[in-house]
Amino acid sequence: MATVSSMMRGAGLVLRSSLAPSRSLSCLARLPPTSLASSQLTCRVPSRTMASKGDMEVAAFLKDEIATEAQNSRALPKLPGWEVKPDGAEVTLAKTIGGEKVMITLNVNHTVDSAQPDDGSEEAPEMLSKPTFEVDLIKAGGKTLSFTCSFVGEEEHPEGQEAEADEDVFCIDEVTMFEGEDHSDACYAVAGDILDGYLYDLFMNLLAERGVDSAFVEELSAWCSGHEHSQYVGLLQEVEKWAKL
Fold first, then answer.
1. In this predicted structure, what is the pLDDT of residue 117?
2. Disulfide: which of 69, 110, 133, 138 matches 106 by Cβ 3.0-4.6 Å?
């Protein structure tokens, strides 16, 4: 009997052992949820911005405004003899004369003004770009004589007196000199309006010999006006696209 009883107790131990959960499974069940990768727990939904009422109003207005401005676009005049390289609002013109490089640099931002005062009529006055521009005369060795020039404004003429036909349309604001690329505030510069009058005229003649005279500067203004307008239309188009995002 003892033998049978021992066998039954042994069988019961085996049965309970087979039904009890294993330690390895119990440990796995207690692992914290943070042990799983976040990508397995979170469903990422791509965000999407919605155009506001103000955005849509801007886009609706610009649709007609861009069409109107495109109709007012003007062809860029030719500037014979000059290599013109626009880079957004910045423009560089260059040519070489007898081993000397003549380079003009300018920026059309904030340069547009009415060519004539608004007389109150419905017709909008013509808008012209008249930027300040730098003229660098660069000798073969890199020695550079540099002029800062600007357009002569209408307000510089006495009231009721028109500019004479042979009057300069631009003036020299500043003169400086530097070597190679060493152009900094350390370089001495002299204002054009304190130069000796005769020397000032000689400098103007020096620029004219290189093609920078009143006739060219008027053409330069016309070119800049067309370029500035194209930049303006481009900005409106980009704003319209942005408003629709």
1. 58
2. 133
**Residue 11: inside a domain, yes or no?**
no
Query: What pTM was computed for the model?
Result: 0.74
Tell whether 110 is covered by a domain: yes
| Three-state secondary structure of the chain | CHHHHHHHHHHHHHHHHHHCCCHHHHHHHCCCHHHCCHHHHCCCCCCCCCCCHHHHHHHHHHHHHHHHHHHCCCCCCCCCCCEEEEECCEEEEEEEECCEEEEEEEECCCCEEECCCCCCCCCCCCEEECCCEEEEEECCCCEEEEEEEEECCHHHCCCCCCCCCCCCCEEEEEEEEEECCCCCCCCCEEEHHHCCHHHHHHHHHHHHHCCCCHHHHHHHHHHHHHHHHHHHHHHHHHHHHHHCC
Residue 224: which domain range? Answer: 53-243
pLDDT digits (tens, 9 = 90+) for 125-175: 678 999 999 999 999 989 999 999 999 986 655 555 555 657 899 999 999
For all residues of the chain together, what is the average pLDDT? Answer: 81
Residue 174 lies inside a defined structural domain of this protein: yes
